[in-house]
Structures are given as C-alpha cells and as structure tokens.
Design goal:
2 copies of one chain form a homodimer. By secondary structure, chain A is an alpha/beta fold. Chain A has one domain (9-256): Rossmann fold, CATH 3.40.50.880. The first copy, chain A, has helices at residues 23-31, 49-63, 76-79, 82-89, 101-108, 112-122, 132-135, 179-188; strands at 9-12, 38-42, 67-71, 93-96, 126-130, 140-144, 156-159, 167-170, 193-197, 201-205, 210-215, 219-223, 229-230, 243-251, 255-258, 263-266. In chain A, the strands form 3 sheets. A 9-stranded mixed sheet of chain A has the order 3-2-4-5-1-10-11-15-16, with helices on both faces. In chain A, α4 (82-89) runs parallel beside α6. Chain A is globular. Chains A and B meet through α8, β12, β14 and β16 of A and α8, β12, β14 and β16 of B.
Chain lengths: 267, 267
C-alpha cells in the first residue's frame, strides 16, 4: 500500500483543546515550521466562516505565528480564485476547521484550490483537519449514519478529497458511539482500513506509512481484511451486520500504527 | 476452555421485544419446554419487583405457559427460604429481569437460592437474564463505567453469579456506546472474552461451547488474547487505553461463535 501515502496529514477527531495545553494545535504549529510557519486556515466547512476561523487565528498568533491567512471560501468561484491559490501555494501548513464535510467537497472538489491541495500534499506540506475537516481526507468519506447496531441504519458516504487512499476516517468517535457505522463502512470494502478518532485526539499520518497518535483519547483502527464471515450483501435488506474476525487496534499517545504492515508498535 | 460451560444460558442485551414478534422470549419459552414449561421469573434486580415481573407473566401466560412463578426476593432471608428453593428446583426455565445487577448478587450470592441456581445450571435448565440479569451471568461483572474513551473513566466491576466462566458480558451495548468499557475490561485480563450484546438481542450459550445469536441486533465479541501491545499498567494513572491487536467478531442472527475455538461460523 506504499503508493497510498505521499504526504503529511494531521487528522483530528474534533473538539481539540484550544484553552489549556493545546497539545494538538501546538504539534501542528511545530510541524508547520513554528515561528517560520505560514499557516492557512480554511473555514469552508462552516457557514459561519468568521466564527470558525477566529479561535484558530487567536491561538496560532498567540503561539507566535507571524504569517496567518484565514481562507474563506463561500462559492466555487472563490475556490477557483487565483488570489486564494497564491496564498495556499506559499503556505507551510493548511488547517481545515470543522462544520459540514459536504460543504468542503462541494465547494473545492475539482477546483483550483482542490488541485493546489493535492500539489501541496505531494510536496509534504502538513495538512490538518478537525471533525468534518478530518473526514474529507480520504477518498470515500462518511457523511451520515447514527445507527447504533451496525448495519441497521445504513451509513451514507460520499467522495472525499482523496488525499489519503485506502482509509476511511470517522471522528468524535468514542463520544458519539460510532464504531457501528465504521464497522459497516469497512464491511462494505474490507480493503479499506477504518480509523476512528476520539475528540481532542489526532493521528499524524506520515509519508513512510506510520500513524502516530497525539492527544488525550484513543484512535481505533479496524482492519477487516482477514474477515471470512460477512453478510454485507444482506445489509441493504435491513439485516444487522455480521463480520468476523476484524482486527482492532486501540492506540493512544506513545503508540504507532503502520499502514503498510497493518500492525501496531510502541513508539 | 471446555471446563467453562456446564449449562444452558440465554443472555439478553436488555429491552427485548415484548409486544410484536417477541422472538427472544418465545425462544426462551420453547427452550424451557413450551406448554410443559415450568418457568420462574426472578425479579430481585428491581426494587419495583411487581412491575418488573408483570409483563413477563402476561407474556408467558399468553404463550400458553401453565406453570409460572414470580419469585420476589427482597432480603437475604428470602434468598434462603426453602419455599423459594422448592419452586426453583422444579422449574424448567429461570428468567432474571433487569434492574441493578448488584441487587441480584448482594441478595442471592452465597444463599440457598444461589446454590440452587448453580445446581440448575449444571443440570442444563435454561437460565435467561436480561440487562442486569445478563451481566450477572459471569464470574466478574461490569457494574459501572460510562467513559467514552477506553480507559479514561475506569470501569467498576464486582463478582457476578459465576455461572459462565472466562467471559464478561455487557448489555445495551451499541445503544449506550459501551465498547470502550468492554475493551478496558478485557485489557485488564485478556484471558477473558468480552461479549457485548445489543438491545433486543441475545446469545444462547450452549454446553458444547457454541454461542448462537438470536434477535434484532448484533453481539460483538472481543478476544484480546493475541494482544502484544497493552498499557493496562498505566490505566490507573488516567492514561487512555492502548491494546492491539484485538480480534473482534460482529455477529447477528444466523451466525455462531465457538468459545472453545474462539472462532465464528455460519449456523
């Protein structure tokens, strides 16, 4: 799977601490170059773009950022704007705020901004996203499905930004009890690795295939590629899921996962 | 592990249907002997014993049960009463209603009723329990712990009735997002198999080590015996859990799990 990672992603499960230690946001700031960081905060996920950008602007400026742009994209025309592309191209770190993942993809998918992101990704510029901004990282993203029992309420999915291949992300994971929908997602194609990230928790996906956990909670990784039992063909008839065995990795800070080898280790 | 199952248990995740198909309760009635069933409903888990027993009484009578006893145990003296023991001894099916699992164990643990249950269990009389009545089946039971991120809020456990060995049960499983606490429980001793049962779902644990799923949702089985990563020693310092890999089996009706082989199959 080593063709799947060509960049540097910080994927955050939402509700990251912005008041106390700010561990995850400080980590992002450091990875983006600390005082030399040129950060673009993209607020397209939110229809309250200004409010969405404000806390990040304050925080990064407080940390000593001297070059910060809030990128407000409200239309597909904005997403094709050369002025915005120019700001992105010179950045050393991109941060997607939360909101609605469909706003992100509907606005920037296939646009000049979308192409620029792919370019930055391949150039190893760190791209971070929280909540909706986390979900869009993958090729296919989960957009709805609150069903408790896996399979009962079918999840709805849509094409994501496609930076991270072979993976599907879910966020606010433990807090919103989302393992059922992530199990359903990986059942639909066990080639896909499912990564569920708790609030105030993030995974740093690196070019060498390593995933490092940073933050307060856990990241749960589901690998259904070994499953010899699956009733996924019956799910659309409203049956509850059967899927076994699934390899599950519960990881917290200090532990890593290797996407290529699909195995965990101590850092 | 074949020393671990000497009986016949129907373990229900709570909120089983009593209005429509009543699939699980009909299954219990059939296993107890149908029209020849001699059923004891034990309401000790509830401090509203009469209300707790009523719906089961009505349902089993409606199904054609001709011999039904509601066993109301309010004190440890009740649990030593020969009259109650006599009722239990002649039964062909025992049903524990929901409520508080600590009421069950505090009242009947070590009593004549407790000893009689063990005797009935060894004699293969079917013993069913829903919700709190499900949790008490095992040697160690979960009594609290709503923490979302595994390990964050430590679960609290207590000794159960000890009928089913080598297993820990959790109920209302998907509905209350309890995978975090069950993961924590199996991390504390990976020898223990974790079984999380959804509402209106049950597992029939049979003497040959097979677990059969009956009902609307899924049973999720966690086997951490393969884990080579664990930080369980750090949990009590408030760290979130790391545990990997864990083998997970998501099973719905039509699928079985074998406790001895720790593997799933199609029925």
């Amino acid at each position: 799977m080593n063709e799947h990672i060509s960049g540097n992603l910080l994927i955050i499960g939402g509700a990251e601490d912005k008041q106390k230690d700010c561990k995850i946001l400080k980590y992002f700031f450091r990875e983006a170059g600390s005082k030399d960081a040129r950060i673009c905060v993209i607020t397209v996920a939110s229809d309250q773009a200004e409010e969405a950008g404000k806390p990040y602007e304050e925080l990064f400026l407080n940390l000593g950022c001297q070059d910060l742009q809030i990128i407000n994209i409200q239309t597909r025309q904005d997403a094709d704007s050369q002025a915005i592309v120019d700001k992105l191209i010179r950045s050393s770190g991109i941060f997607f705020t939360g909101g609605d993942q469909l706003r992100i993809t509907a606005m920037i998918g296939g646009s000049a901004v979308g192409r620029t992101l792919q370019h930055l990704y391949e150039g190893k510029v760190i791209i971070a996203g929280t909540s909706a901004g986390a979900s869009v990282m993958s090729e296919t993203m989960i957009i709805a499905g609150q069903g408790d029992t896996p399979g009962e309420d079918l999840i709805r999915m849509a094409p994501g930004l496609g930076l991270l291949k072979g993976v599907i992300i879910d966020q606010h994971f433990a807090q919103r009890g989302r393992i059922g929908r992530l199990l359903t997602a990986v059942a639909l194609n066990p080639y896909i690795l499912g990564i569920g990230i708790d609030e105030d928790t993030s995974v740093h996906v690196q070019g060498d295939g390593r995933i490092k956990v940073i933050g307060r909670g856990t990241a749960l990784i589901l690998d259904a590629s070994y499953a010899n039992i699956s009733n996924v063909d019956e799910l659309f008839a409203g049956r509850p899921l059967a899927l076994a065995p699934v390899k599950l990795h519960v990881l917290s800070e200090g532990y890593e996962f290797n996407i290529w080898e699909r195995s965990s280790s101590v850092k």
